[in-house]
Amino acid sequence: MTSVGIDAIEIWTGKLRLDLPNTFAPVKGDDPEKYTKGLGLHNSSMPDVYEDIVTMGANAAKRLMERKGLSPQDIGRIDVATESAFDNSKPVSTYIAGCLEQVFEGDFHHANKGERKFACVAGTQSIDDAYNWIKAGRNRGRAALVIATDTALYARGDPGEATQGAGAVAMLISEDPSVVELSTEQGYGSADETDFLKPNQQFPSVDGKRSMKVYLARMREALEDYESVAGRTHPDDITYIPFHTPFPGMVRKAALLGYRHMTRDTEIEEELAAELGRQPREEDFDSWDAYEEAIRGYMDGLKDTDRYRDWYARTIEPTLTLSGQLGNWYTGSVHLARTSALKTAAETGKGLTGEKLLVGSYGSGAQAEIHAETVQEGWKEEIEALTIDEQMARRYDLSFDEYEQVHDVHNHDKEIDVEEFTQPVGEFVFAGWGRMNERKYEYVD
Ligand code: COA
Fold first, then answer.
1. Which of 51, 331, 365, 386 is most open to solvent, judged by the fewest CB atoms within 10 Å of its CB?
2. How many Cβ atoms from other residues are within 10 Å of residue 11's Cβ?
3. Which residue range(s) make up the domain with 162?
4. In CATH, what number is assigned to the domain containing residue 113?
């Protein structure tokens, strides 16, 4: 059986940053710890005036192709996942291919291009499409380029404004991958929900509190579905669990729920019973409310046990380091979480080859997907080639007034002229509008 998975990853962050505790919180009259401790966020990445989903995606893809020594003929598909598209017909992948053709020899005329939409889960769905295409033997030895790119901006004053972000993750999906092999087994939790949507509008309508409940409900359903095909999951078998991370505080809730589920009827539940009692079982309660209250009590106790804290520090915390500095990248978020875990392992000298990840993706509207990944031999070299630390350090630190200008520049309903905050070097930039109202791009040396 051919092994298929992620062969390479590149990340491009928006070149500006909004410091949440020091710049955003004071203007909003909030305690900075709401951001750093409550949500788990320190900075949001923001796009400079010449950046958008195309430039960030193309810049990440260019770097990936150069590093892997690829030319356009090596790529048989380009799928872009985004929830920030500006064109309802022409897919973002065509704009990105056009950019790449400005700098690479050859063209992508024989590559299948598309755009995937299902809120934040679309990046994972694009990986799925690439996986299936390769497994079906239709790839003619070529690889797929999957690009998750978003400018995750909320209307000013919306509670979601605290969780914004902008950036792109480009991934090469191929046979015999260097980073991770994907499992065939998958689980889904999917339902028609109205938690977060953009009905023909740029900024989302969000019911934030409800979206958190829906995330947890769908994730739980996906885990049960995954276990129905892959067998029971056990915390000791999984090295990292990268979740979709709109903000680290969300993952704190998902991880606790996941741990309770995974440890039920295991020796861990028995060992914890001395401290907490056994997990409440629905059949032992007269009403759903009484059962829920007992569950809440159990979870409150569980999260303070040494056993859980150790597990969380080992398995979940390493997935959150990038998110806390970059914000929500929507379709890219879960892929940042995976990268963050692998990066932490590389930095701490941890061996990972053959280890297992359980990846929990989520998109509002709503759908969760869970699959497993096995880390491959080349993971460390790939992760060490990333430049995300340098990119983060170089970001321009916005004042609150400058942040508002940047937000307005990227607001499709406003027309304002703002000077760029950083100088583009060796990258694609937005270069104005064409005769059919298309966005145009050029490469700047
Ligand atoms: N110190 C420590 N923690 C603090 C704090 C402080 N001074 N002030 C607040 N907090 C905690 C809160 O207790 C809360 O944590 P909890 O949920 O564990 O109780 C967290 O910080 C957020 O505070 P809250 O008052 O709930 O924030 P909010 O009402 O402004 O909204 C969201 C939070 C997530 C609903 C909002 O940011 C949003 O709508 N985001 C977009 C939607 C989203 O990302 N949904 C997730 C699923 S995809």
1. 386
2. 27
3. 4-444
4. 3.40.47.10
